[in-house]
Model the fold of this input.
Amino acid sequence: MNLPKSPYELALRNYAKETKHKIILAASTHENEEVLIANAVSKIASSEKFLLIFAPRHLNRAEEIINRLGSMPRRSKGELPISKHRYFLSDSMGEMRCLYNVADIIVLGGSFFKSGGHNPIEPALAGKAIICGKSIFKNKSDYSLLIKTGMIHQVKSNQTLRRTLEDILKPNNRMEKALVKGQKIAQEACMRPAKAAHYIISTIEQKP
Done:
């Protein structure tokens, strides 16, 4: 079921339409990941213009991010990006899904150092290209499935991150089938709890 778009999502979609900027989402990032991703994006060899949205895992890091990367509009202050902005800080609760929906590329944080990675299923539901780092041990099986489809690209270095971003941004990247496969896997994963519950109930009901 498609949920109605929030005013926030509509505003970001309008921004992308009016500016023709690609949106790169740095999702659920941890310390030092914002700078790593920003450095990679700044070196992309492309005629495209970008907005890099930071959605940190812990909102209390907002000031730290601004201190390291400079002033930027903030969601928590009711601000929105305009064409001159390179960065936007989405420091709010409960709005990650709409960010996944508007992003052209998702760089999934918690995976570039030693945090173990965050669950990739929710971003995969959006059917977008995803990039992660080496540290994915917390959700290794889901990552492995999505990496095999080609939806998730695992990178080993900052330089590889830049090259991967460039490859995905190419008009002829031929990722459509990979994204459909990955999205289907994510949808099936969301059905696991219901299937498990149905199995347990059926087993109980069959007992004499």
Remarks:
- The radius of gyration is 18 Å.
- Strands lie at 22-29, 50-56, 87-89, 105-108, 129-132, 152-154.
- The domain at 7-206 is CATH 3.40.50.2000 (Rossmann fold).
- The mean pLDDT is 92.
